[in-house]
Amino acid sequence: MSNTQTRPLRQSISANTPGFAVQRLLAILKRIQVGHLVVEVDGEQWSFSGEQMPELSAVLRLKHPARLLSRLARLGDIGFAEGYIQRDFETDDLAQLVEIGARNFDALSQDLRPGFWARLAHRIQHALRVNHRRNSKRNIAAHYDLGNEFYRLWLDETMTYSSAINLDQHNTLAEAQQAKYQRLLDQLDANPGDEILEIGCGWGGLAEVAAKRGIHTTGITLSEEQLNFARKRAEHGGFADKARFELTDYRDQTGTFDHIISIEMFEAVGMRYWPHYFQTLYQRLKPGGRAALQIITIDEKVFETYRREPDFIQLYIFPGGMLPTKTHLNHLAQAQGFSICNQHNFGQDYAETLKLWGQRFDQKTTELEHLGFDENFRRTWRYYLAYCAGGFRAGRVDVVQLILEKPADPS
């Protein structure tokens, strides 16, 4: 595809007319090297094809091109997200559109970086949400305390809000979620009577599976909504004798356990506290115990930019969050004295999980309205699910199950 050079976007937004905006946007899209994109404006069409992955295709229907151009100039890729939320454009397959953007990020990044003042504001906003004890509960509540009914609408019946594993046409989402729990317990070599600490217990899905294997779980969370749901789940499910749920910060947990499980909680810890998290794992494990961690990771090549410039997820969805790279995880584990027993990556399973969540979410518009979630909120969450799916498909993010072991004789 032609690598036609254009002036940086923020240098040329003064001619803020629809016709000018369309031409500027088309000039930017000429840089596409991967996938096929059709742009529609007022009945006209333009087509852009890269030399790679022509089967990856999407249609971008511009409704307010001048408004979108202005957002891109000021806010970069955050502006693209806001453009979708505010209906500057429409598309039939948001995840495919986002994947095209992710796979062409290097080619398009000249015009997808926020301006200086936007970057500064985003950094300050992110810094103010750092996950010290006071902020952690507030940050968790901002996402997980939207209400159990909200999540029940579009999660599967296990109420699991993390990636399934080995998800294909031969099993359901619920079955693949159960398989994920079973694999983690198998990797721990957990036996009946063992005591497990689950850091970030969600709605109690793992504890229910563990109880059926005779394993006792102490689950901790900072979400009161999740705590109440998990306790009722244990009572109604008949496993309250094998599961205890507490509203506790992981830093305040006491005692030692045979094993630890933590599923997609590390992303909420914050980079400043990563070493302390691994120290806590080590301190809470008995000698010879194992920790099974499921963690979303980010590509090494983009980490420094990601660290400096908060993304859509950090600003809109998970305040205070930060994804590590696989290298970070390995260094943190080894520095604390853990042996790494197993590492399994399954990012494409997450892409499929998100696809199914997105489909279920889209089918629940009326119910979401009845719960009080307006169109802007629904479009924000549609973009969030599609943004994540596109990132996993493109390989910019991955998910790993990491199995760590504490020495039998720590001395």
Could you explain how this protein is built, in words?
By secondary structure, this protein is an alpha/beta fold. The chain has two domains: 9-114, no CATH class; 133-405, Vaccinia Virus protein VP39 (Rossmann fold). The chain is 46% helix and 19% strand. The protein has helices at 18-29, 65-75, 77-85, 94-103, 105-108, 116-127, 133-144, 148-154, 173-188, 205-212, 224-237, 274-284, 303-308, 312-317, 326-336, 347-362, 365-370, 375-394, and strands spanning 34-41, 44-49, 52-62, 89-90, 195-199, 216-221, 243-247, 257-263, 285-298, 339-345, 397-405. Strand 1 (34-41) and strand 2 form a beta hairpin. Helix 3 (77-85) crosses helix 18. The longest helix is centred in the C-terminal third of the chain and has 20 residues, at 375-394. Mean pLDDT is 88; it is low at 1-17 and 115-129.
Name the beta content range: 15-25%
Instruction: Look at the helices and sheets and give the structural class.
Output: alpha/beta
Task: Give me the number of helical elements.
Answer: 18
Main sheet strand line-up: 7-6-5-8-9-11-10
State the CATH superfamily name of the largest domain. Answer: Vaccinia Virus protein VP39
* Helix proportion: 40-55%
Question: In a few lines, what is going on in this structure?
Answer:
The chain is of the alpha/beta class and 411 residues long. The protein is built from 18 helices and eleven strands. The strands form two sheets. Strands 7-6-5-8-9-11-10 form a seven-stranded mixed sheet, with helices on both faces. Strands 2-1-3-4 form a four-stranded mixed sheet.
